[in-house]
Amino acid sequence: MSKSLKITLSYFLFLIGSFILKAQEKQPIKQLLPVIEKKYNVSFSYADNTIKNVTVNLILDDLSLNEILDAIEIQTELQFNNLDDTYITITKKPTVEKFKFHQLEEVVVNNYLTSGIHKNNNGSITLKPEQFGILPGLTEPDVLHSIQALPGIVSVDETVSNINVRGGTHDQNLILYDGIRMYQSGHFFGLISAFNPRLTKEVSIIKNGSSAKYGESISGIVDMKMDDEINEEEYGLGVNLINIDGYAIIPFNEKTAIQIAARRSITDAINTPTYDQYFKRIFQDSDLTNANDASISKNESFYFYDTSLKFLYDLTEKDNIRINFLNVYNKLNYEEESTVNSETEASESQLKQQNLALGITYNRTWNEDFTTSAQAYFTKYDLDATNYDILNNQRLIQENKVIEGGFKLDANYNFSPTFSLNSGINFSEVGISNFEDVNNPVFQSYIKYVLHTIAAYSEGTYESENKNTLIKLGLRHNYFRKFDKHLLEPRLHISQLVFNHFRVDVSAELKSQSSSQIIDLQNDFLGIEKRRWVLANNTTIPIQQSKQASIGFRYHKNKLLMSLETYAKKVDGITTRSQGFQNQYQFVNDIGNYEIYGIDMLINKRFNNFSTWLSYSFSENNYTFNNLNSGNKFPNNFDITHRISFAGTYQWKGLKTALGLNWRSGKPYTKPDSVDGDVITYQEPNSSRLDDYLRLDFSSTYQFNLGKHQGKVGLSLWNVLDNKNVLNAYFTAEDDMISTVENYSLGITPNLSFSVVF
Q1: What pLDDT, on a 0 to 100 scale, did the predictor assign at position 102?
Q2: Whether residue 359 has pLDDT greater than 60
């Protein structure tokens, strides 16, 4: 069959999924592009407005990639530009009357580890859930689990609520949802990401050299953005062994649309093998499972849900309004029975965790070179626990609340095709309260602090026309009104192509944050979510400040990527209570710092349908506290010296499979030296290490057609070898006897999923 005849036939037919050929009406190109990407192992980059409302008729079976692109160009006003053998940009065809210029984010490495993950020229890594391929142990693009596949990012306890970016604690990360800070990141108290990926357009992950617009973070940044365009109508449903979910994209007309997504656990209705493993992992060593001999805990009920909504309204071609809403909720109830004076008494303890977020954004495009954005936002975090101790006739109520409101104004101006300026100002008010109420003995405490912050920033970006050079230089000024304190934070990122396919990246930054999480007692909040948010008071809890510098080298050619990045980072103003000590320093208050030096390495090779990678991270992370350990350094609680990840993914038509091995050296802990009654004398702090951690994960998905709709089934196995990894160890004493308490990782954990898109 001739090429011209194939193209002619393609006008009337197209392939849905991977196997069935069926005559259809015109299909939005937005739905077709991911199919082409998967079938031909390429990736497209484009501005959303470029493909908005563009439809085509195509059959993919017998056409080559070039023939498909030719057919689309004939049917539409689109133009394809090949940057290399796998990366293609899409623009509008120029006309005699007008040529519209689109400045696209330059992608240096496409399909980084797997499809849907990209390494950008500006130093960030972008994850696009709708293009997501597959990672070992995951069948769905769980954002906070996915980023742990990147070198330099790890969770020492396997949760998404304790992610350590280059040695930092989780509260030192900035997690944004459409520009709004989130104070809760996990469902099931950290085993599942709290953010539904169904409506997430893209996620930016930054480890160093962050833009000056980002504040309140001294470690990593996870910036999630929802889809900002009015698109075609779409619906989806999904279910797995933990939750059910659904979403809808509903355009009312060309100017108005709504996006809705909801997810709810099935754990309070159905007992699944996945829930059993999650329950054992997250509730071990908590009040729920640590009932004494005279007490019986039973009838636990746990569930979670999240709902997100985005309203889109285009006032004019240059003005639009976006309204975002998110509600994340977890609740645990359990009954406790005890026999007191020959009578059985029962009570119900509970734990609730919730994060609400609301934002209203007004965007204006003044011309092709100048845009502005104004956002007013509100976010509220609430952690409540009621704990009954029947034997001691005691009831303990604990609450931790965070309320933040603010306003952001941002402006971008393109002085030329190579130089742009981004400037803005932020106002925020954060109030954090902690409440405790005990009935026996009677005790009540309520502490609340409020802090106002004003920040201004400006950042210039130069990128040469040939994309070989990028220089980003910014400055942020923070003013904390309560302390009359000014902090200047310069930011720098340079990316330079020095030889063909060889690039050097240099990043440096100073950052600060005024809020943090601490642990007062290990059994607070039922011993499950024991961390509470607090505000800096400029005395016992200072404003934390970090400085970091890194230099990296990358070689990228013929689908082979080799990268090496070395970094140094120091964080001042940390407190002992923010680090979770369970040794001689558990009840000691002191201020200090940590310093970390490390190397992140990655080798990633992609073939036609196969991608494999080997990553290695080395770091040395040490504390220095003013009054502890004679002022000498000792290992950080989150010091993981060595970490290796080896994985591979395979894709054939609608089938995707991934297998990955994770190994890391054990985290530090402190052994006891002697005991006197219930008082333990310890060895040198963090002078011992847990056994090495080893985990093998597997996952597979299959995409198929359900009539006119697209379905997908998935299977994942976490910890295939069922290794009994020790995540934490500490010691208790009573009557001159020392007991060892060990917390273990998830055992072999299966999950099944099914989803359909209408």
Answers
A1: 39
A2: yes
